[in-house]
């Protein structure tokens, strides 16, 4: 983050749900079990649960007001500010990958779906685990063969941002970059989820460094900005 200082962020989880079926020729699917069907039903159930949670649970611990205000001028007219605010403040569950089968004329014997979840203190990682486990149990009780692989499990980082580290960084940055920098939470995740385990909300924590256009084809670090940050941290 080179345009703002970060003192808190959401958690992040990566889930893979595996569905097991039985292969057969597609001309006689009754001899097989299509692994994709129960996986689709699972995805729909999780999405329905997510929509319900989003309406009932509002994130308040992480204040994204400053970040939202900074985003507003660049938002396309087709985006509703309320929807952006809901995504920033609340739990986010996104099915990002799905695959199954090996060829068009065979009933697929296995299928996978991956989810990325951004958690908040009001609906934390343990609650997401319960949601996924209970949904798997429900579908397996009805004949599905689903299992889960939780391959990333990072808790939200919650600090107040009210400490001398943030104050000093903002003072030095104003001089080094000749502009003001807000301090705010972000929806992304950092190693602080591990480094700050067991620390309370008053622990001084800061993320601030060069880089722009993350996860885009032209993601980059400008050389001049890189050297400015060296001077910033030296000071």
| Element order: H for helix, E for strand | EEEHHHEEEHEHEHH
Q: Which CATH class of the largest domain applies here?
A: Alpha Beta
**Could you say which overall geometry the principal axes of the C-alpha atoms support?**
elongated
DSSP summary: helix tally: 7
Number of strands: 8
| Percent of sequence in beta strands | 15-25%
Structural class: alpha+beta
C-alpha-based Rg, rounded: 22 Å
* Overall tally of structural domains: 2
Q: Fraction of residues in helices?
A: 25-40%
Instruction: Provide the spatial order of strands within the biggest beta sheet.
Output: 4-6-2-7
Q: What labels would you give this structure?
A:
zinc; 8 strands; 4-stranded antiparallel β-sheet; two-stranded parallel sheet; hydrolase; single chain; Alpha-Beta Plaits; alpha+beta; Peptidase_M20_dimer; 2 domains; 235 residues; DNA polymerase, domain 1; hydrolase activity; Succinyl-diaminopimelate desuccinylase; 7 helices
How would you characterize this protein structure?
With 235 residues, the protein is of the alpha+beta class. The chain has seven helices and eight strands. It starts with a strand and ends with a helix. The mean pLDDT is 91. InterPro entries: Bact_exopeptidase_dim_dom, Peptidase_M20_dimer, Peptidase_M20A. Keywords: Hydrolase, Metal-binding, Zinc. Its cofactor is Zn(2+). It holds the Pfam family M20_dimer.
